[in-house]
Amino acid sequence: MKTYSVKPKDIQHQWHVIDASDRVLGRLATEAASLLRGKHKPIYAPHVDVGDFVIVTNASKVRVTGNKAKQKIYYRHSGYPGGLKSINFSDMMEDVSPSYLKS
């Protein structure tokens, strides 16, 4: 039996729409990453792009478990000395939410 190698003509990319309403952030990210890499397909090969396209809707309604809303901190750095910035999850979600959702 010979080893099957994926050819570019065999790859078919599909579109997936994931609704993030009331879904846990980590589990949603894992599902999206698996679809993007193509690990759900029988022709998966790590060296070939066999993944699909993913659209996540209602991302502002995603939830986190435990105390992560206040304790989870995201960092970014500008590249300049003293340029380290941090923001926690709940503040980030307030900043990125559209203004018509804020009350």
Can you put this structure into words, describing what you see?
This protein is of the alpha+beta class and 103 residues long. The protein folds into two domains: 12-63, no CATH class; 65-98, no CATH class. Helices cover 24% and strands 19% of the residues. It contains three helices and four strands, in the order E-H-E-H-E-E-H. It has helices at residues 25-37, 68-71, 89-96; strands at residues 15-19, 53-57, 73-77, 84-88. A two-stranded parallel sheet has the order 1-2. A two-stranded antiparallel ribbon has the order 3-4. A hairpin with a 6-residue loop joins strand 3 and strand 4. The longest helix is centred in the N-terminal third of the chain and has 13 residues, at 25-37. The termini are far apart. The model has no long low-confidence stretch (mean pLDDT 91).
